[in-house]
Amino acid sequence: MVPEQLPSEPAPLPSSGPVEVPPSVPPVEPSPKSEGRTAFEELAEQIVEEKWKGLQKEVSKMSEWKADMSSRMDKIEQSIVDLKSNFDGLHKAILSRISEYDKTLVDVGTEIKAMEKVFQKVLPELTSNVQELSRITKASKDSGKKPSFSKQSKKQSKLESKV
Questions:
Q1: DSSP string for 2-37
Q2: Cα–Cα distance between 88 and 81 in angstroms, integer?
Q3: In contact, 140 and 129? CB cutoff 8 Å
Q4: How far is the C-alpha of 103 from the C-alpha of 109, rounded, in Å?
Q5: CB 127 within 8 A of CB 148
Q6: Is the pTM of this model over 0.85?
Q7: 129, 156 Cβ separation under 8 angstroms
Q8: Are the CB atoms for 99 and 130 separated by under 8 Å?
């Protein structure tokens, strides 16, 4: 085997990063062109900064507007919830009142039916009593004497005294 000779300096590797300038190259002094370019860059930066500040102001205004609208929306939503609650309460109260009226009407209907039954029992007797009184009154006017009561009228007068 033959020993190989190694070079005293390693071979340069290909790099993908920035290339270093050897110290033997003198630095580049700014030329009049590069000074104009620097002034242009500064002017461009000032314009960009002014526009950026204006944009930030507009975004700030929009953010404030958004917060204000959000607050208003929350208030409106709460108002709607309150109105719904009030409406539900009124609805329940109205239904309760209607239920009371319905019960009252049923009670009145029952009382009317009871009175109807009473009248069915009492009315025929009342009618016959009125007819008899009318006949007696007519007879007493015609004869000029005291009316005489029949057995039926005595029964009716006893019945009337009980009622």
A1: -PPPPPSSPPPPP-SSPPPPPTTSPPPPPPHHHHHH
A2: 11
A3: no
A4: 10
A5: no
A6: no
A7: yes
A8: no
Number of H helices, E strands in the chain: 2, 0
By C-alpha distance, which of 128, 122, 120 is closest to 150? 128
- What is d(CA 143, CA 140) in angstroms, rounded to the nearest whole number? 5
For residue 51, the SS3 value is helix
Q: Are 140 and 147 in contact (CB under 8 A)?
A: yes
Q: What is the pLDDT of residues 123-155, one digit of tens each?
A: 889 899 999 999 999 988 888 655 555 555 555
pLDDT tens, position by position, 10-26: 454 444 444 454 455 44
Buried b (16+ CB within 10 A) or exposed e, 14-34: eeeeeeeeeeeeeeeeeeeee
Residues, the chain, total? Answer: 163
Reading the block at residue 70, the tokens are 């959000």
Residue 156 makes CB contacts below 8 A (sequence gap 6+) with 125, 128, 129, 132
The per-residue pLDDT for range 59-103, each reduced to its tens digit, is 999 999 999 999 999 999 999 999 999 999 999 999 999 999 999
Q: Which amino acid is at 34?
A: S
Contact, 129 vs 163, CB < 8 A?
A: no
